[in-house]
Amino acid sequence: MDEKSIGAISLQGPTCWKGYIDNAANQKGSGVGLVLISPEGITIEKSLRLGFSTTNNEAEYEALLEGMVMVEKLGGKSVNMFSDSRLIVGQVNGELEARDERMQEYLDQAKRLRSFFDPFSLLHISKSGNTNADSLAMLATSSA
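Above: the chain's sequence. Below: its structure in token form.
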């Protein structure tokens, strides 16, 4: 091998972020949990109490939007998001429609943010596969 060949060899590491999202909406309030994993394997966890009343589905969208904004601000260009909400995953992926006006607004925001990423995916996972984000969401509603 000559010098030019050696210079052309490079290791391509993973370039895609992963994001796990969940929500909690109960009598104590609404909160979201996020677990973001950078391409280098750095884990960022966030528990966020929402200062307004939401349904479970609205809180799940809040988690999705917060996760997308955080990855974009951290310089991420591609992301695989994971949610245990079949409704949100179905709406964002175009398999289900958002009929409620407020849900349509959330969906529109998600579509705008998704244009920052190439590629972007939102995949459904089981509740048991999302326990860390679920715990963070519950933590957000545990105190005033």
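The first strand starts at residue 17 and ends at 26.
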